[in-house]
Design brief:
638 residues, alpha+beta, six-stranded antiparallel sheet, five-stranded parallel sheet, 17 helices, binds adenosine-5'-diphosphate
């Protein structure tokens, strides 16, 4: 198909010449007119490939024709034909937009060349226009996409900044509807208990409908999305009835996923025909669904941690123990009612320094004590109560001080001490009196042999009761932790004292007493009186249970960072089955001879003393061969 040339010339002769001699033989279609106005009308209607026009024509001059064509059909090339000598006009025509000009008379070759050039130019400018149009369209779609992304980012920011879940979900639905230009939208959540879907947020739904909306998962389209975890897009010409609810023309449902499960559905739809929902809409709604899922998950986590926080806060504020928590700069993070009352801080300001808040030197000293080790302090409050305050460092927080009211314990302790003093005095005094009078009987006159024996029995019994009382009192004091004296003490020296005290009875029983108590041992920390008592009890047992002629050995030595005490005898030993009960109160082994006096409390006292000095004690013994008691105490470093 050849190109179409519109020829405009008032000379019929020239029209005929151009048409029949040049253009048609060259394969062009030709339409010829004799005036400018007809040329314009036809050009607009036919949209020829080139217009070939004379300069002087009736109704519309060639130059004006060029201008009008340039305006209405900017890519249509127009070639002007002029008479010789009117070059100035030709320049004007070029300025007006003519593609070329030919000076009459011209030959066929010139005309065809000019036509070829004009058409090539026209094609190029058409191409350019097309590219321009395409890039404009591309830019527009990019702009739209950018706008969409901006909207999404904005919604993302808004949504994550909102704490109220209902508001977040409503914003999500509104944004999904807005971005997809849908009519209405809803967010359905799965009720885990009933398995139904309920409408959690909506836009353009009747309020009552939204509030009472409940859908069985099994028989709904939304349920399909829940079950498959995949989006659904419906865009048929015919409206669809979405199970028991309402008619829509187009619909888009996407899953809401949280913690690997589908927890709900975000949907937009159109009830009217003529609006469709596309794959692009789906991408947008899925992004909104992600926001909603994040918000729901955040809200769930927030609610859970909030519930935990409230629970903890309730425990801390309601507990009878006082609690104070400070940051590393000793600024108050928490002070509960009990603590505030204890220190008479009527309106404690969180965030302020404890120094400004609490007017009590002892608690301030405890809080500000250097180091990170836990510390314990008994603090006397202004109202006379005593609290046991325990400071504990907490990583990443600061430190906490927990205080228990021990006023009643202190009172009990006082009563007990009083009782101990009274008992020891009140019981011991009559016993001393009995012993005194028993001694006097012998001196106040002649006593028979039998009476002498009775007097001896009374004396033995009284001595036994006295020993029992003093053992019981000792045990009570040690177990109650009343012996808190702690000194750096040399264990061999204490052992030597004990040996000296008991050497007499060892000799009396004809025992060999061996000692190995080197002086250069590390020290131990403890109460020297109790430690000496512990050594004496063990040594006394060895001496009193070992038959005459036997051997008793006491030795001390250092090992690693410990000091070891051993008391070894060649006595009767302890039956293996009874060894586990040896340190129990009032326990006496079945092979303990009747005539050997004892309360059964000596080893209990020993064990209590060793325990209260962070030591260990054990026995190795074989029947008939002897026993070996070992005590290990921590040595003082350095
Ligand atoms: P007691 O006052 O009876 O000596 P202890 O508590 O000191 O009470 O000792 C408990 C029991 O352990 C003793 O009754 C005795 O049977 C046994 N026992 C303690 N030390 C020895 C020892 N060195 N050899 C044999 N038996 C011992």
């Amino acid at each position: 198909m050849g190109e179409t040339i519109l020829v405009a010339d008032d000379s019929a002769e020239i029209r005929k010449f151009l048409e029949e001699t040049i253009l048609k033989p060259s394969g062009y279609n030709v339409v010829s007119v004799g005036d400018g106005m007809s040329a314009l009308t036809l050009a607009l209607e036919l949209k020829p490939d080139v217009v070939l026009t004379d300069l002087n024509m009736p109704s519309l001059r060639g130059l004006d024709l060029i201008r009008r064509l340039k305006r209405d059909l900017p890519t249509l090339p127009v070639i002007l034909m002029t008479a010789e000598g009117s070059e100035a006009l030709a320049v004007e025509a070029l300025r007006a937009g003519a593609a070329d000009y030919l000076v009459k008379p011209f030959d066929a070759e010139h005309l065809l060349a000019a036509l070829g050039r004009a058409m090539a130019l026209s094609r190029r400018s058409q191409d350019t226009l097309k590219i321009q149009a395409e890039s404009r369209a591309g830019a527009q779609s990019l702009e739209r996409r950018l706008h969409e992304l901006e909207a999404l980012a904005h919604i993302g920011r808004t949504v994550t900044a909102m704490l109220d879940l209902d508001q977040v979900l409503t914003t999500v639905v509104e944004s999904a509807v807005g971005l997809t230009e849908a009519e209405e939208g809803s967010l359905l959540l799965l009720d885990e208990e009933s398995g139904d879907l309920t409408m959690r947020a909506s836009m353009n739904f009747d309020d009552e409908f939204a509030r009472t909306f409940r859908l069985k998962v099994e028989d709904s389209l939304a349920g399909q999305v829940i079950a498959s975890g995949k989006p659904v897009i419906l865009d048929e010409g015919a409206p669809q009835k979405i199970k028991t609810s309402y008619l829509v023309h187009s619909l888009l449902y996407v899953p809401l996923r949280a913690r690997g499960r589908t927890i709900g559905v975000l949907g937009v739809d159109n009830r009217k025909a003529g609006r469709s929902l596309t794959k692009e809409d789906m991408t947008v709604v899925m992004a909104m669904a992600d926001y909603a899922a994040i918000a729901i998950e955040n809200a769930r986590l927030y609610n859970r941690s909030e519930a935990e926080r409230v629970k903890l806060e309730t425990i801390l504020t309601q507990t009878e123990d006082g609690v104070i928590v400070v940051d590393p700069e000793n600024r108050l993070l928490l002070i509960n009612r009990t603590a505030a009352e204890a220190f008479e801080a009527s309106d404690p300001q969180l965030g302020r320094s404890v120094v400004e808040t609490l007017d009590h030197p002892q608690i301030l000293a405890l809080v500000r004590a250097p180091g990170r080790a836990p510390r314990r302090e008994e603090i006397e409050l202004k109202d006379g109560r005593v609290v046991n305050a325990q400071r504990t460092p907490i990583d990443g927080v600061g430190q906490a001080v927990v205080m228990q009211d021990i006023t009643h314990l202190k009172e009990l302790d006082r009563i007990k001490s009083e009782f101990v003093t009274t008992v020891s005095h009140d019981l011991r005094s009559p016993l001393t009196a009995i012993l005194g009078y028993v001694d006097l009987i012998g001196r106040s006159g002649e006593v028979s042999e039998q009476q002498r024996e009775f007097i001896q029995r009374v004396r033995t019994s009284v001595e036994h009761i006295t020993a029992l009382i003093s053992d019981l009192l000792d045990l009570g004091r040690i177990e109650a932790g009343l012996d808190s004296a702690r000194e750096t003490t040399p264990l061999p020296v204490l052992a030597r004292y004990a040996v000296e005290t008991l050497r007499g009875s060892a000799e009396h029983r004809k025992l060999t007493l061996e000692t190995d108590l080197p002086e250069d041992l590390p020290m131990v920390t403890g109460d020297p009186i109790r430690l000496r008592q512990m050594i004496a009890n063990l040594l006394e047992n060895a001496i009193k249970y070992t038959p005459p002629g036997g051997r008793v050995r006491i030795e001390t030595m250092a090992e690693a960072d410990q000091v070891i005490l051993r008391i070894i005898d060649s006595g009767p030993g302890i039956p293996p089955a009874e060894q586990p009960y040896l340190f129990d109160k009032f326990f006496r082994a079945s092979n303990a001879p009747e005539e050997v006096a004892g309360t059964g409390l000596g080893l209990s006292i020993v064990k209590s003393i060793v325990d209260s000095h962070d030591g260990r004690i054990w026995v190795e013994s074989a029947l008939g061969k002897g026993s070996r008691f070992t005590v290990v105490l921590p040595a003082v470093a350095g």
